[in-house]
Amino acid sequence: MFHNRSEALILAIPAALFAAVVFLVPVVMLLSEGFHGPAGDWSIGAYTAFFSETLNRTVFLRTLRLGLEVTAAAVVIGYAAALAIVHLPSKGKGRMIGLVVLPLMISPVARTYAWIVILGRTGFVNKALMTLHLIDSPLHLLFSETAVFLGLLQLFLPLMILPLIGALENLPKDAVAAARVLGANWLQVFWKIVLPLTREGLVLGGALVFTGSLTAYITPAILGGSKVLMLETLLYQRVAVSNDFVAASVIAFILIVMSFGANLVLKHLATARSRI
Amino acid sequence: MKLLATAIWLACILPLTAEAANRTLTISVYAYAQDDYKRLVYDPFEARCGCKLVVETGNSVERLARMETNKAHPVVDMAVVSMADALRASRDGLLAKIDPAKLPNIEKLYDLAKDPNGDGMSVGYTFYATSIVYRPDKMKIESWADLLKPEYVGHIAFPNITTNQGPPALQMLGQAMGETAPNLKAPIAAIGQNKDDIVTFYEKSSQLVQLMQQEEIWAAPIGRFSWGAFTKLDVPVAWATPKEGQTGGMNVMVLTKGSQNQDLAQEFMNFWISTDVQTALAQKLVDSPANKDVKVAPDIANNLTYGEATARSLKLIPSAAILDQRDGWVKEWNEAVGQ
């Protein structure tokens, strides 16, 4: 399309400048705060101070654990849902994909508030369990890790299902049938045929769900509050309450490293499997 | 000669009139109830002074951070902040002394609002009581310590240490336990022992209304300014008057050091604490009046922190104690309660 590379580069300059000025420069400025010592020299003191506090370590590990748990649950439910959807006739498939996409069009605040009603003492879950005589008094479900887990899973599940549907649709139609004819059971079919051939969808969905769970603010803030602090809610607390921009910068950097790390690991897993 | 005299007179007077018309006062306020403030405070003041008001809004952390950044060339002429934030700004060298001679209405304020931090750097314009909102059909609150009774503790929300209500509520809990303020060690330890039972440590009082509505909680310490929303619920609610008394907080007006409009800023402050303006703000339930001449009907007063007796009974934590000990409190809280 272009006669030479420089023409293409010239066209890219406005977008690159825009991104640099409104995104890169502020992010670098914010992150550099965390690497400055009290005398203005370079230092990692803020990071050692951050990790020396028990609360911060607990919050870091909880964020990592919940991110992994939500991603794992999304993979299991996502595969089941995507497999069911791709085998529907085209009209039904369109409707089901519409249903998967629908929650993405509703504000996360509204979706999260719905969980308060569902998980409350007088909410649907407790009422159902009481009616079935499984419990005598209502359970404390709100403001717990369970509530945050459910909220995050509901929030990000569509981001796992959609890439998996795309990947499953590209699966050669006769691959599963051939494996079955050759004597593979359903578990073997999934493990040796479906999983390797849909790994790109899995990696994309996994990256979106994990990164989303790490960086979500509204859901942990409403469903967990300060009883279930996550890195994002801790970051907000440090800025809005303590005016501590250094700690905020440290948390922001940790979140960025975790997101990039997850992407690298998932990409490595995908390519490692493709070499098998 | 006459012409020359007229020309000289015009040359002298024109810049003055132009300056009067161009006078601009920049104020920094909470984002809360700005439509009401515009109608009841800003517009009437603009009409009176022939000047223009520029209003900056935001939470106090953001606004103080901006004032700090612009310290050498202040943009804001006056700001409203909490008592403790006023002392912090004063210690950071951001504030100028207020001249009581330019604010004659100070004499009409309750004593606790005249010079809240005792440094002449701030004037209180509204205060609020902090006590316990509770379900009278489910429980009886006669003391702050009742919140931690085994039969109640699984049904309460407590303010997080990082909120404005946190330290005052802990202080009163401590008093109920026989502690002397402002040492919060004992109440923090007591909250820590009950942390798994307490429903949540809230950061915004607005979230409590829904929790109360769906019976998730029966009681929570709140500021009186949030009370109105609870009275609209279709469950019975009451405002506790614990035997240890009520605590609370105060918002104050401060003057920026180096501002070019200090006289105009003080004229505006004087206007804000005038009986007429304070009455108008009270009638609309925007702010509880710090001016003791304000008179409102009992149904309005019921939704405010109102009256001489209430003002006298408030046990406010001194700003210096909050500023000097907040980091220590947060650390103690994180160790005992932090999850």
Describe the structure concisely for a colleague:
The complex is a heterodimer of chains A (276) and B (339). Chain A has 276 residues and is mostly helical.
What does this structure look like?
The complex is a heterodimer of chains A (276) and B (339). With 276 residues, chain A is mostly helical. Chain A has one domain: Orthogonal Bundle (MetI-like fold). In chain A, 77% of the residues lie in helices and 0% in strands. Chain A has 13 helices and no strands. The radius of gyration of chain A is 23 Å and the shape is globular. Chain A starts with a helix and ends with a helix. The model of chain A has no long low-confidence stretch (mean pLDDT 89). Chain B is α/β, with parallel strands linked by helices. Chain B folds into 2 domains: 184 residues, Periplasmic binding protein-like II (D-Maltodextrin-Binding Protein, domain 2); 139 residues, 3-Layer(aba) Sandwich (D-Maltodextrin-Binding Protein, domain 2). The chains are: A mainly alpha (276), B alpha/beta (339). At the A-B interface, helix 3, helix 5 and helix 12 of A face helix 3, strand 7, helix 9 and helix 15 of B.
Report the radius of gyration of chain B as a whole number of Å.
23 Å
- Helix-strand topology string of chain B: HEHEHEHEHEHEHHEHEHEEHHHHH
Tell me what the CATH architecture of the largest domain in chain B is: 3-Layer(aba) Sandwich
Give the full name of the CATH homologous superfamily of the largest domain in chain B.
Periplasmic binding protein-like II
Distance between the termini of chain A: 38 Å
The largest chain-to-chain contact, stated as pair and per-chain residue counts, equals: A-B, 27 and 25 residues
The CATH superfamily label of chain A reads MetI-like
H and E order of chain A:
HHHHHHHHHHHHH
* Multimer state: heterodimer
- The 3D shape of chain A can be described as globular
- The proportion of residues in beta strands of chain B is 15-25%
Low-confidence stretches of chain A: none
Summarize the main sheet of chain B.
8 strands, mixed
Instruction: Assess the beta-strand content of chain A as a share of residues.
Output: under 5%
- How many β strands of chain A by DSSP? 0
CATH class of the largest domain in chain B: Alpha Beta
